[in-house]
């Protein structure tokens, strides 16, 4: 790999560079596709979690950019030798960490087309197909989820593709904020209160901060094991009443279908009833679990969404549509537009002036936007609803299998009910009988042992899981969702867990 140290005098006589030469694009494109195809063929052989140390890459790469052009063949060799070792392989069949970021041929090719056209679709005029395909696909997907017609363009609402849930929540908080401040005056922004549960993703708190909500006005309402860590209407009401009595103004509730820690489900029907009573905007975050709700047997988790104001899920998590692709629907698009719209002279055009087209720049934080709908359209068309349901059900079946394996080993327990394809489990406190550490409670000792077990498993590189602490209990999260995972991988994962547990428990008891 070259660097500026090899710099030569620039005579200005070099041939003209052709960065989009069709034939060279074809040649290099084939090489990259072949490289990726081989990567997926062999991905199972790599340690799932990267084994490198911090700063590893700086030791391998030059400290300045190359002066002369380098061939793609050499660059791909460096990708294999220097970049691949530093990857945590999210698409490995042995990846069970966080939540999935599922990939697919259709998703990759849709991304390729989107990147290839490289349009900047901020308004209808900038590329009509980008805007119109997005509105059509969002209605398709809304119907697949059986969302109420009020969320669809055909029913007066509408959908937009954001990058992530963080953006979707921020956009809806800003819309709710401005809607409320028009009623009570902008000088009262410090009275606005945002609600979630103690299981709600940190994206809510971050979005509230960015939107100007005072940090002390963020409420993480407590949940408990008794309700499987779902937010109760009673707890929400008690907090709201307390805030109202203190002169505060309730603004926004984020209810979650499938929390990050344990995939807990907040009951939408009673929560929306409380929120409606106090004029609160309700956003439903189904980032992970929303995908499963295209299956009729899981649609009941969305019962009550008809009373919410907005709804989102990440197609890039469990819907075969590569990062980034967050689907957001709102009942009242004008609330978004009023809060997020700007219309400078240089963007004025006849189509926008007629108000007969959608300008998606007014539905999001940024001006520029990618042609994300193209890859979502390819995924839906290339696989169809039936195959997408089959894909989701296969992962849920594998998770049930893993849960069953846990149940056959009395040393382990499933800590919270499994709702989808994520199992939260641990070594049981019963195993701590003779292994309890001095001056440490049995629960703390159990947490410590489980944390040590998870780290030794992940260090092996054979599988990768992450953890959560739920109600003070440290759990290992086994999230099935990688596109290449089969039941044999799940069975192997359980054997690896048992082997490491055997070694750890035997060591601590000796």
TrEMBL record:
Record region (Disordered): 1-21
Keyword Cell division part of the UniProt annotation: no
Gene Ontology molecular functions: L-tryptophan decarboxylase activity; pyridoxal phosphate binding; transferase activity
Basic and acidic residues composition bias: residue spans: 1-10
GO CC terms in record: cytoplasm
InterPro entries: Aromatic_deC, PyrdxlP-dep_de-COase, PyrdxlP-dep_Trfase, PyrdxlP-dep_Trfase_major, PyrdxlP-dep_Trfase_small, Pyridoxal-P_BS
Classification via Pfam families: Pyridoxal_deC
Keyword terms of this UniProt record: Decarboxylase, Lyase, Pyridoxal phosphate, Transferase
Transmembrane portions of the chain: none
Modified residues (N6-(pyridoxal phosphate)lysine): 317
The protein's required cofactors: pyridoxal 5'-phosphate
Gene Ontology BP term (one): amino acid metabolic process
Family: Belongs to the group II decarboxylase family.
Full protein name: Pyridoxal phosphate transferases superfamily protein
Organism annotation: Perilla frutescens var. hirtella (Perilla citriodora)
